[in-house]
Amino acid sequence: MEEVGKVTHYFSRVGVAAVVLSKTLKKGDRIRIKGATTDFEQVVESMEIDHKPVDVAMPGDMVGIKVKERVRKKDKVYLI
Q: Which residue range is the domain that position 44 belongs to?
């Protein structure tokens, strides 16, 4: 597994994680989000930059990813 980003914020109302990317991430990629109390896998089905849907995000981008479980600040995002 390679780390692709870190969670900077979680929007509980909409179930979206704000993630700063260190590597490229594409829609359809399988990711694992892991932290002190977080650990789950999912497919990236919805990804946005500045409230606009994107299919690919580059290193340095701040993306919003729809997540199926609660995540926390500093959780790491891995590509599986």
A: 2-79
**Phi and psi at residue 73, to the nearest 5°:** -55, 140
Residue pair 77/18 in contact (Cβ under 8 Å)? The answer is: no
Q: How many CB atoms lie within 10 A of CB 33?
A: 24
Q: Could you count the other beta carbons within 10 Å of the beta carbon of residue 10?
A: 18
CATH number assigned to the domain comprising residue 16 = 2.40.30.10
- The predicted-structure confidence for 26-71, as pLDDT tens digits, reads as follows 999 999 999 999 999 999 999 999 999 999 999 999 999 999 999 9
- Cα radius of gyration (the chain): 11
**Domain count within the chain:** 1
